[in-house]
Amino acid sequence: MPLALLALAIGAFGIGTTEFVIMGLLPEVAADFQISIPTAGFLVTGYALGVVLGAPLMTLLGTRVTRKRMLMLLMGLFIVGNVVSALAPVFGVMLAGRVVASLAHGAFFGIGSVVAADLVAPQKKAGAIAMMFTGLTVANVVGVPLGTYIGQSAGWRTTFVLVALLGVIGLVGVAKLVPEQPKPEGVRVRHELAAFRNVQVLLAMAMTVLGFGGVFAAITYITPMMTEIAGYSASSVTWLLVLFGLGMVGGNLVGGRFADRHLMPMLYISLGALALVLGLFTVTAHNKVAAAVTIVLIGALGFATVPPLQKRVLDQAAGAPTLASAVNIGAFNLGNALSAWLGGLVIAAGLGYTAPNWVGAVLAASALVLAVVSGLLERRSAGAEGRIVAGSSPEAVAAPARH
Questions:
Q1: Cα–Cα 20 to 30 A to 245, which of 122, 238, 293, 306?
Q2: How far lies 118's CA from each of 2, 55, 123, 170, in Å?
Q3: What is the 8-class DSSP label of residue 188?
Q4: Which 3 state secondary structure label does DSSP give 108?
């Protein structure tokens, strides 16, 4: 794998850290600004919405510059947003800083996926994408727990200063290691938007929303589930999330390796197993050991879908992949927001803290159904093309034989 992937992974590590570390620092931020924790929670919601809106916006703005230069500009935006958050005198300024940082998120992963895939041979594209996303998964194992500890010990502002420094390292890495690639000729906004007329692109994005949404339906409410149902102490939740992160790292690498060989079978297996494990979590959540093992499996199976889904979008939008790739990153965050809302609804309805697991299982199963539909459509299309190549028009093939 090219060394340039390391620079992309470092940028992904910083972005992953800033996205998730705020969840562990909400009490400190709320106390500093003298606001309620639910109000501080807008820092999470605002970031997620910024990713969804910023992914297509920043990608379209970047169609006039080279991908390397756009990646550098996005890392600069990320640095500015985190510095603003670290120095914010009032809550509104910090929220603005979070939104600014989030605007870089989707476009960085979207453009970075295209760059990573272009750096390697065709049979290694999914592995290269997975290598970049390793930075995001490792952030959940190292960056988030460490950032939370630093924020609780030395103040939350210190955490955001350090995250900004990670952005600086990522920016320098991109500048030094990522090769210059010529700006794609003839790429226009209309050209990029044309990819969304491809039903396979839309199906892949819907799989992203539902599949990864299934993961976060459960993980969003992991704290009350583990403390109230499994019997863990509140301090143990951090280590349970580290286990989840380790599962993400392993699943991401395995998903990237096998997606290069058997992309659709990889999706069928990972989504089917994810739906099954999420359903079982309603039972295993009542036992400490079983719950811990299940959390690892959810992380592994959930992130095993990321490289194949991202590569699926790149393959199906091959003529103009950049915008579609970035929007698919926004789809992950849309899935997170949707599943968190649905999980909250079933808890509020009095169905208990394990009820979001059923929501996640249904979402993952729905993604599996879409994957099967996508595969059937692809085989049908390939069969029709094969008949045409063989010299028979579709009409001639369909017509009854005459004797």
A1: 122
A2: 11, 20, 11, 19
A3: -
A4: helix
